[in-house]
Amino acid sequence: MSDHVIPLPPQPAIPTVDGGLFPVRRVYCIGRNFAAHAVEMGHDPDREPPFFFQKNPDNLDSSGRFPYPPRSDDVHHEVELLVALTSGGRDIAVEDALDHVWGYGVALDMTRRDLQGQMKKMGRPWEIGKAFEHSAPVGALQPVSQVGHPDRGQIALRVNGTLRQQGDLNQMIWKVPEMISYLSGYFTLAAGDVILAGTPSGVGPVDRGDELLASIDGVGELRVSVV
Question: Which residues contact 72 (CB under 8 A, 6 or more apart)?
């Protein structure tokens, strides 16, 4: 007999290339981690301390379909490298950080930009613009044993075949080991945690019927239909 007073909710998980599932505990997202994107969003690209926001584990969606969300007329795409942790801890040293990575994937940080903008003006949290249902389309994860630790290579997004976003992983202001180390100073990281590592410039709106193709050299592709 279960001690739970309601049925246990489903465990959010991301598929892996070998057919397994990676269970997700938390989702951390770094903001403005590419200098050109910081500029296009109206901010100074100097290397200031990083900042993070969160999405919900069940925002991750591997279905290949992105339902256009309610209460918004300005939903933007943001292609990102996804980092999946196999272990964690507190105050992880930069030089040890990659030992905690299980693998990598391609993801989209879909954003209700109009609602996010309203929250910024009022000095309020961003969740209404960032953490809505299906807001993080994801592709199958690649284990470190197959792809290593990608720290350079093109990251790009095409909408209906037209290139919208393009950058290189080596342009990230805060690299993956630094992000893991920094986060672990404020949170206890653990197996199942996911980090979205920031987006290059070129973010823009999507419409119903659009076909998105996100890609990262050495990591893979993610195809998403806006419905």
Answer: 112, 113, 114, 115
